[in-house]
Amino acid sequence: MKTIKDKVASLSFVALLMALTAAMFYTPTASAHGEKSQAAFMRMRTIHWYDLNWSKDEVAVNETVTISGKFHVFGGWPESVDEPDVSFLNIGIPGPVFIRAGSWIGGQLVPRSVALSLGETYDFKVLLKARRPGDWHVHTMMNVQGGGPIIGPGKWVTITGSMSQFVNPIVTLTGKTLDLETYNISNIYFWHAIWYAVGVAWMWYWAKGPIFIPRQLAVASGKASTLISSGDKKVGIVFLVGTIVANAYLMGATNDEYPVTTPLQAGTMRGIIPLEMPVPSVNVVVDDATYRVPGRAMQMSLTVTNNGDSSVRLGEFMTASVRFLEPNVLEDETGYPDDLLAEEGLTVSDNSPLAPGETRSISVTASDAAWEVYRLADLIYDPDSRFAGLLFFFDEAGNRQMVMVDSALIPSFI
Ligand SMILES: [Cu+2]
Fold this sequence. Notes:
alpha+beta; Helix Hairpins; Immunoglobulin-like; five-stranded antiparallel beta sheet; 6 helices; 21% helix; elongated
């Protein structure tokens, strides 16, 4: 005989299972991506994103935004992160608020993973189509197998309009036009509901009787075999045979209706062509680098030699997507995200033009709240406390040279 307690126990068990299953369908909206919590060395010593451009700040549903720019794959890639042999150019957004209509590296379409080479620089472009209205933080991102997602800078983009207006038409290889956004959606709901119901029926059948304690007692007293009746066995067979038959029949029916299918394409694309970068005529040696914790400033002593034929000045230091500018040399006109831009963040002890053939020792200070806000200062607690970044020099004609720096960073707490 079933007691009230047993009934309550089994009902709550079923309710718990249903709640757990339903929870899998619940995906709340997130507006940030934890970009600040990614280890500082990951952002400083892996992929350096620069020259970025988000084509628009505001778009209507169905309109497109292009994100383009360059990334430098740091030659001193950390040992604790797998090398970018299998990398996927992605976009960091909170769910499918945009769809990716296409992405390119070095002018080549890259719908799948690519192999990147350390020390090389690539240009890239991602075409996005707006889907869900709202304010979204849109980041560049590189997914590296064995390394995780490596996040680039994010910029707020507003999507206006209504999601119900969103369309995603494609032409299949057999010449049919269909809208991927709504294609067969009722069919998908129908079959999810059917199998959900079958699953719940299965759970309900086994949880309806007395569970836990009566069964535990039966097992403990050696009567475990009495727990499963011949009726239970029949029900089990009906579920098993029914599921196999239904699957076989439905698979056959689907194959008849859609005779031509191709699998999702995977694999790694090799031979992506990097940008041909001129050998820099400016040579930089990092003599030492310290981070002053109270001042939120990094100070580098550099020995700079100009081997070119035009005098140069230092205009920018960029690390982990934070740009420190020397305001006398460079002003940002690209609309780079404010929180990642230290417009007057770079101070150089002597930034008068460095003549061709001249060598000078300079002290360069990169200071901004971003060191703390973006948790880059956490670097000083790493067992391999190094920083890396890009220095940009400008000659008289405004030509730019990019020089990579990489050095140990010693913290100073006073
Ligand atoms: Cu973000």
